[in-house]
């Protein structure tokens, strides 16, 4: 008997382009949501775009948070219940979007994603990434009902946020390799469609590297389309596997060991150089990953991340413990192997 089934959840409206923030009201109206919105944001995005949202929705309630945590999710849930919010509008980088995504899941209400930075591929995904103590949870949640990504706004964001988004996409190369490895060695379920989409997204971005330059709105357009595509790959997979492998485990450990030092995307990019080395050895593709990152202006060394050598080695040797996700790191790499990988690849 045929017994396979799949349920792919995707946003209904995805608007990407110049000035589309002013169409947020229209995009929300089309969703037939009821009740008042609660704006979930963090300090800089609130300052940059909060008023443009209020211009469309009136003087709505808002909550500003600067750390992704279960406590932050709880605060949003409590506030939304207090004001009887009908839905959430997430405005900002990856953290407010992850918080709102998970809070809307707890509240059983919809949310709309309004990125102010093309810095991560959680803009569209149905996963929420929240740290807790020594571990990192990639929690299943519904994706946004709508995404409104204004390339004019995204192009004005600090350039390093865009290069972080590029690096988050480039890390799909190693994430997909890790996923395939886990499929072969551990029988982890693999989706050919999601794997191919994630990999193709990274390839198309690298092919467009020459057009990714500061000050060009075209760059925000190219990178945001890739972030959307990568998020769709996660939705097809029903997991963050297509976009998160060992390089993400490394980054999640850095978040614990050296919090707030470097951007998520930059950390996963540097991680991908080293995990590609573990996959394919000294003559392998790690140079291609390093060169692609460097062409786009993303960091390729510990120094550029602002993270010291000892922390990089500790993160690499302990990354496998952060989550139950089989990758090229297996049961862990030794300190000697980590130093060798980081040195050969020029990360140290
Ligand atoms: N759920 C998922 O599938 C995914 C989740 N993530 C998560 O997203 C987070 C990383 O996202 P980030 O955006 O790097 O973090 P973030 O939300 O902390 O933003 C980084 C910084 O940029 C600032 N910022 C945002 N837009 C700005 C603008 N237009 N102008 C000036 N400053 C601006 C923020 O205020 C913050 O200080 C991590 O927690 C990561 O785990 C990342 C990828 C996928
Ligand atoms: O950052 C992500 C994909 O780019 C999400 O992955 P995690 O599941 O590792 O949090
Ligand atoms: Zn990521």
From TrEMBL:
Binds 1 zinc ion per subunit. GO terms for cellular component: cytoplasm. Belongs to the glycerol-1-phosphate dehydrogenase family. InterPro entries: G1P_dehydrogenase_arc, G1PDH, Glycerol_DH. It comes from Haloferax namakaokahaiae. This is Glycerol-1-phosphate dehydrogenase [NAD(P)+]. Coiled coil: none annotated. It comes from the Archaea. Its EC number is 1.1.1.261. Glycerol binds at residues 121, 168, 248, 264. Keywords: Cytoplasm, Lipid biosynthesis, Lipid metabolism, Metal-binding, NAD, NADP, Oxidoreductase, Phospholipid biosynthesis, Phospholipid metabolism, Zinc.
């Amino acid at each position: 008997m045929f017994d396979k089934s799949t349920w792919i959840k995707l946003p209904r409206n995805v608007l990407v382009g110049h000035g589309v923030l002013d169409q947020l009201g229209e995009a929300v109206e089309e969703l037939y949501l009821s009740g008042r919105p609660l704006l979930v944001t963090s300090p800089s995005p609130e300052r940059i775009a909060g008023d443009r949202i209020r211009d469309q929705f009136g003087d709505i309630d808002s909550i500003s948070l600067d750390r992704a945590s279960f406590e932050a999710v709880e605060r949003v849930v409590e506030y939304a219940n207090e004001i009887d919010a009908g839905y959430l509008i997430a405005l900002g980088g990856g953290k407010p979007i992850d918080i709102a995504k998970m809070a809307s899941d707890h509240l059983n209400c919809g949310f709309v994603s309004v990125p102010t930075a093309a810095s991560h591929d959680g803009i569209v995904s149905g996963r929420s990434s929240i740290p807790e103590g020594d571990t990192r949870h990639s929690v299943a949640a519904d994706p946004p009902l709508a995404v409104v990504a204004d390339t004019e706004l995204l192009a004005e964001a600090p350039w390093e946020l865009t290069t972080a988004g590029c690096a988050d996409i480039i890390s799909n190369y190693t994430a997909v390799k890790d996923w395939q490895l886990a499929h072969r060695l551990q029988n982890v379920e693999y989706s050919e469609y999601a794997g191919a989409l994630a990999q193709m997204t990274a390839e198309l971005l690298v092919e467009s590297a020459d057009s990714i330059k500061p000050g060009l709105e075209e760059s925000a357009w190219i990178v945001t389309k890739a972030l959307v595509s990568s998020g769709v790959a996660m939705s097809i997979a029903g997991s963050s596997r297509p976009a998160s492998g060992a390089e993400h485990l490394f980054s999640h450990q850095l978040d614990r060991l050296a919090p707030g030092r470097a951007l998520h995307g930059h950390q996963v990019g540097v991680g991908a150089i080293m995990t590609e080395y573990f996959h394919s050895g000294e003559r392998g593709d790690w140079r291609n990953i390093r060169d692609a990152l460097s062409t786009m202006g993303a960091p390729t060394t510990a120094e550029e991340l602002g993270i010291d050598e000892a922390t990089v080695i500790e993160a690499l040797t302990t990354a496998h413990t952060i989550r139950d996700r089989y990758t090229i790191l297996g049961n862990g790499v030794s300190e000697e192997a980590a130093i060798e990988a980081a040195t050969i690849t020029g990360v140290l």
